[in-house]
Design brief:
There is one protein chain. The chain is of the alpha+beta class. 39% of the residues lie in helices and 21% in strands. The chain has a six-stranded antiparallel β-sheet, with helices on both faces. A hairpin with a 6-residue loop joins strand 2 and strand 3. It starts with a helix and ends in an 8-residue tail after the last helix. The relative contact order is 0.17. The structure holds methionine sulfoxide.
């Protein structure tokens, strides 16, 4: 990490009530109540997903943090708010980690993306990833939260547990959100 990027990482994180000296999984756990407070009172789904992606990106430093939304008409996944490099716009059934999380309604933890059959490489820098389903009140998958790391095997069970907690915050609010356009 260069000094410049390092300074940016710290400045952004300082806007959240996080102790950046604590281990990453602990910071992500600390973020759960903060995320709830940040999203409460705002009903724009786009705004809330954008801030959720930014919060986890700045708390973690992971390479790509963002959402794909289920497009029920087209029966595929469309890119939503994210932080990180430009990404694939659409993802399709049966191809890749995001589609697996959507179709199986189950979190996917992939320590080595090159070993995952059909992995969709939006960025060659991503070496490991986790994808968590976001559910509405009926338990249907309405989006997936995709987090990619430039390090191999970078998602420990305590990271995933914290991310599940953060995803639950979003799932619990989903039905009350509105979407412009
Ligand atoms: N790797 C994902 C595609 C999305 S991007 O990496 C941002 C997948 O296999 O579904």
């Amino acid at each position: 990490m260069t000094a410049g990027i390092g300074a940016y990482f710290w400045d952004v994180a300082n806007d959240l009530p996080l102790d950046m000296t604590r281990p990453r999984a602990e910071r992500l756990s600390q973020l759960i109540p903060s995320l709830r407070a940040l999203l409460e009172g705002e009903t724009s789904g786009g705004a809330n997903l954008a801030n959720a992606a930014a919060a986890v990106h700045s708390a973690s430093g992971w390479h790509w943090v963002g959402f794909y939304l289920v497009d029920f008409e087209q029966d595929n996944l469309v890119l939503g708010p994210f932080q990180g490099p430009v990404a694939c716009t659409r993802l399709f059934r049966g191809k890749g980690v995001c589609a697996a999380a959507w179709e199986q309604n189950r979190t996917q933890v992939v320590p080595n993306v090159h070993a995952f059959p059909g992995h969709v490489a939006c960025s060659s820098a991503s070496l490991s990833e986790v994808v968590l389903p976001v559910r509405n009140s009926l338990g249907e998958v309405v989006a997936v939260w995709d987090i990619d790391s430039a390090e191999a095997d970078d998602f420990a069970p305590d990271d995933v547990a914290a991310l599940e907690g953060l995803t639950s915050v979003i799932s619990s609010m989903w039905d009350s959100w509105t979407w412009a356009g």
